[in-house]
Specification:
By secondary structure, the chain is of the alpha/beta class. The protein has 4 domains: about 1-135, 3-Layer(aba) Sandwich (Rossmann fold), CATH 3.40.50; about 160-270, Hect, E3 ligase catalytic domain fold, CATH 3.90.1750; about 280-325, no CATH class; about 350-470, no CATH class. It has 14 helices and 15 strands. Strands 2-1-3-4-5 form a 5-stranded mixed beta sheet, with helices on both faces. A 3-stranded mixed beta sheet has the order 10-14-15. Helix 4 (about 85-100) runs antiparallel to helix 5 (about 115-150) and helix 6 (about 175-190) packs across helix 9 (about 255-270). It starts with a strand and ends with a strand.
Amino acid sequence: MQTAIYVRVSTEEQANEGFSINAQKDKLTKYAEINDWNIVDYYIDDGISGKNLTERPEVNRLINDVKAKKITNVLVYKLDRLTRSVKDLIYLIELFDKNNCTFNSQTEKIDTSNAVGRMFVKIIGIFAEFERENLAERVSFGYEQKTKEGNYTNCNGVFGYDYLIGKGILKVNYEEAKYVKKIYEWYLNGESMLKIAEKLKDFNVHTKRGGNWNQSTISSILTNPLYIGNIRYGVKKKNSFEVIGKNITPLINENLFYNVQNLIKKRNKLKTNRYSSDDTYYFKVLKCSKCGNKFHAKQQIQNGKKYITYRCNGKYNDSCDTCGFSHLKMEEAFLKFLDTIENFDFNERVLEEKNQLMENNDNKKIKEEITKLKKKRYNITELFSMDNIDYETFKQIKEVIDNKINLLYKELKSNSIIQSNSLEKIKKIIINLKNNFINLNNHEKKIFLERFVKFIEVEKVNDTVIIKNVEF
C-alpha cells in the first residue's frame, strides 16, 4: 500500500521521548516495513496542538494528497497524534473511506479496512476528546485558584510591566509606566481613546507586543485594575472576580482609576453604534476617493438627538487620512450632485431583473433562517426522545419554533407582492430623480441607493463633502 506516515508533537510533549518526532518516525517506519507497505512521504506537524485541523499545515497537505489519490494508507503512532476532536476524526475517517484510503494506528492496532476497526476509531476518539476537555478544565481551575490567591497568571505580561519568566512576578517597566499614567490623564481631560492611540503613534511608543495602538488597546489599559494593584479573573463572565494582587506595584492611584471608570460609563451612555440602518442609508454605497476603502457609519444619541457620521475604514489602519463627515453634509452633497445630472430613462427589463435579484437575495436569507429553525426543531426532538428534557419543555420550545417558521413562510409569500409595488415606485422615482428622492422616507432612500447605486466616491475638502463620482 502507498503509505503516508503522519507524525505530530505539541509543545508540551517535546520533552516526552515516547512522543518525540524521531521516536515516532522510527517506530512507524519499521512497522510499515514489516507490513511491506511502501512509504510515500512523512507528514510532520512539529509543536502544534491536535485540537483542530485548520492550523496544521502537514495534516492539510496529507488530506490533499489523499484526495489526489497519491496515498492509499495513512499510518500514525497513536490516534490522538492525528486528532483529538471526534468531529475531525469522523471527518477524516469518512474522507479516507471516500477516497479508498485505509487508516492504521500502530499503538491501538486499528485498521479501518474493516468495520470493527472503524468502530474502535470512533470509540477511542471520544475518550481522546474527553481527556482534552478534562485537561482544559483542570488548567482553567488551576488559573482560577492561583488568581484567587493574588497571583498574576498572564505570562505575556502587560503594558507598564515586564513578566519575569520562572519567577512568576511582574516588574515595573518605567518607560512604559509613565505612558500608562498619561493615558489615564489624557482620557480624564477629555481625549477620546482614538485620539490617545494617535498620540502614542506620534510619540513612537510601541504596544507591549509591537503592534499598532487602537481603541481596543487603549480601552484594555483604561479598564485594567492591575494598575492599582488588583488582579481580575475573567471579564464580564459569571465567575469573574477581582482580588488584591501579591507583590504588584500600582502605577496609578485609585482615585484616578475610578474617575476614569465613571467617565467611561458616562460616555457609553451616548449609545455609540456602527451599523447599517434606515437612518444611515449612505452606509453601503460610500467609497473613499483617496484609498478606495468603504466607509462605516457611526450613530450617537445624546439628549434625545441623533448624530450620524461616516468615516473611511482606511483611517483605522493608517492607510488613509480622509476625515469623517456628518450624514447631513453627505445628504447636502448628494442633492447638489443630483442637480448636475439629467433625469434617467429606464429599461424596464433591467429594472425587473435587478428587482428579481434583490427579491431572490431576500428570500434566500429567509430560507436559510427556516433551515436553521428546522434543525433546532430536530435537535429538540432528539433531546426529548432521549429523555433529556420533559414533554412540557419540549412542547413549549417546539411551539415557539413552529410559530417562527410559519411567520417566515408567510413573509416569503408576501415578498413578491411587496417587490412588485416597490418596482412601480422605483420607476416613478427615476423619471424625476431629484424631486422624488427628496420626498422618499429614509427606508425608501436606503432601498433605492442599495439597489441602484453601485458606489458614491467621496472625499472631504476643508469642511465640505465632495462627490467625485457616482456609478449607478
